[in-house]
Amino acid sequence: MTDIINELSGIDADFIALRERRADAVANAQTSFEALLEPENPGDFSYAERYTVAAFVTGISQSGEAAKFYLDLLADESDDALVAAVREAIAAGTTAGPFHQGEFTIFAPESDLGARLAAALDFAHLLTFHPRDADTSAVGHLDAAGWSSDDIVSLAQLISFLAFQQRVVHGLRVLAGSSVSTVSTDKEPSNAAGSIVKTVTNTGWKPGQNTLTPEVVKPGKFVNHSLGWQPWVAPMEKADFTEAHLDSLIKPERIDMPYFRLLARDPAALRARTVTDLDIFYNTEGGLGRAERELAATVASRYNGCEYCASVHQARAKEEGGDADAIHRLLDEGIQADLGSAQWSAIRDAAVALTSTPFAFNDTHVAKLREVGLDDLSIIDVINSSSFFNWANRLMLTLGEPDVPKRFR
């Protein structure tokens, strides 16, 4: 099957060869597409629903070629009425982000979308532009619309994967010098679609019957020590793990971690995602240093507001020889902090741009990365590392919440 990222980015053979230096990441990004968009057994989360979500997410994000690709897949799988409803939803929901504590768009369940898909697009809009604003009520909203625990995990994985895919595609296009359409980075949601949509601050959603509401002590700030994490959707019980579920963990000890037992509800997606992660961050055959990859992960997490991911990856950046004082300033002061070196500043600026829209990332960022000594493989590592944490952060922020361990309270 054609590699979707290569196809959408339009890169030539030389850049494809550079991508292939991270062969597991390339192969498993494609496998993630297949697991989430075209699984052998889609179950209750139908192909038409999956293509609807993908077309909507890429459409509202102003990823023109990707939106057309997914709309074409949807048109092959559904009727004209659903395609028209999705186009209307895209027109209503297009904006930029991510934002924190702001308004976002929700869709009327009585529209041609129906209650189940309307709830999915509500969740998709939240994850795409407001992941930091998610709470147990967002999961409850899906629960109330008939989404099972397994399908909520698959839906969150799909939306989060698309955040990664779009950023890699755009980053590669810029790196390769392809012309990139000018898009708005400050567009507000539109009410042009009339009764299909409303823009809200307070949704009125509530935790559902199957929503977990754990008691946690939230960190309240970005910290330089480890954190726990508690899910809002029930993880799988260890006794229910099959060989496929165990295989999806890659590392057997992860069965003791609620996060991985939760994502194992979609084992094919979890396995592909994990192998992508490992190759992006641990394949050190040329390219960017480990500390710098972890820096990009920490920057994306700091920008997106994911205290848990930032706590993990700031520690790894220091373990790999990164400047601890600079990392602490990043945690304390935010993405504008003085990182103490031109190279780290250039990586930070690129990671912020890719995370923010991602169309803020442009040839100026590529030029600065080259000026501080990064070759094209290293820049691909910056793109991959930053983009991956737009996948990871969204899962952490919308399926559960961080918890301060007792020893740090």
TrEMBL record:
Which InterPro entries did the record assign?
Answer: AhpD-like (IPR029032), AhpD_Avi7169 (IPR023923), AhpD_core (IPR004675), CHP04029_CMD-like (IPR023982), CMD-like (IPR003779), Uncharacterised_peroxidase-rel (IPR010195)
Pfam families referenced in this protein's UniProt entry, alphabetically: CMD (PF02627)
| Domain of life of the native organism | Bacteria
Where do the Carboxymuconolactone decarboxylase-like domain residues begin and end?
267-347
**Protein name, as recorded:** Carboxymuconolactone decarboxylase-like domain-containing protein
Q: What is the lineage of its organism?
A: Bacteria, Bacillati, Actinomycetota, Actinomycetes, Mycobacteriales
